[in-house]
Amino acid sequence: MKIENPTGTALYSIEKAIKEYRKLAQKNIAKVVKDITVDQCLVLIILEQNQNISQNELANLVFKDNASITRMIELMVKNDYLTRTIHSEDRRKFNLVVTEKGLKTIKLIEPVVQHNREKALHGLSLNEIALLDQTLHKIIQNCKK
Amino acid sequence: MKIENPTGTALYSIEKAIKEYRKLAQKNIAKVVKDITVDQCLVLIILEQNQNISQNELANLVFKDNASITRMIELMVKNDYLTRTIHSEDRRKFNLVVTEKGLKTIKLIEPVVQHNREKALHGLSLNEIALLDQTLHKIIQNCKK
DNA sequence: CTATTTATATTGATATATCAATTATATTTG
DNA sequence: CAAATATAATTGATATATCAATATAAATAG
């Protein structure tokens, strides 16, 4: 049984697409803010929109591991993007709050993020994007079973 | 300008899909071979099918950085999956050769890789997969410009 | 109410990602 | 041919990914 060239399959196109997008995103974000990564931007935006979520929930929203989130938050606190204080009702949890610097940063990167998405999806019809999303969700479900 | 929730866009579905697939792949591969990663498996398969390629070319085929490839190869040589010798005609290059252990490993993981792909794409029509691939390639091109 | 189980987060170990700087060798240009 | 340029790979620094083990606190069963 000869395996086909892995780089020829749709699954590798998925990998390639996300890598190219991340490269684009990082490049453009770096133009306006120097000390932040794409992942940290995403965390910032999510946290601003979802106050009072736990690290756990945050991890799920950004498709990351708990361990990764712990370390990202450490860094972001160190770089003054977030503050972290103990949750008063459940002492296992923490309150994650976006700082002033974090809020300013969000304002700076918002148009960049929009632009990146538009660039990546340029020339695709709404229908095409919807289909893409639909197919990807089927794959996600298949993998989870 | 309020940014939409990033997790709602097709681009994040791409990220989620590839992460779920990698998780599935790693889990199933670990069942038959313990000391190898998904990425290393891919490198093995590519190297068996493309003899005499440089690290550079290999990096492009697996969508990785040169630096990543250097470190992966170091590890794979250390774990006896590959041998690396200096290229006689261009002394900047190396000959990468899959070892006996590497070949045996490929035989072991081939059916697993097939099964993983089938599982991930289960229930999708050929047309649907082709469309997916096509749309992803548009995105890839958009990001590269 | 105590013992067990569950939930939240951290830590250690190892692998990979990415950028920038560097080394070594090849190729091209003047 | 010598100097400049280009190519292949490495290295250092830092960020993220993943698994397994652990610590702490909360919830629940008996």
Automatic annotation (TrEMBL), chains A, B:
InterPro entries: HTH_MarR-typ, Tscrpt_reg_MarR-type_CS, WH-like_DNA-bd_sf, WH_DNA-bd_sf. One of its GO terms (molecular function) is DNA-binding transcription factor activity. SUPFAM superfamilies: Winged helix' DNA-binding domain. Residues 4-141 form the HTH marR-type domain. Gene3D superfamilies: Winged helix-like DNA-binding domain superfamily/Winged helix DNA-binding domain. Keywords: DNA-binding, Transcription, Transcription regulation. This is MarR family transcriptional regulator.
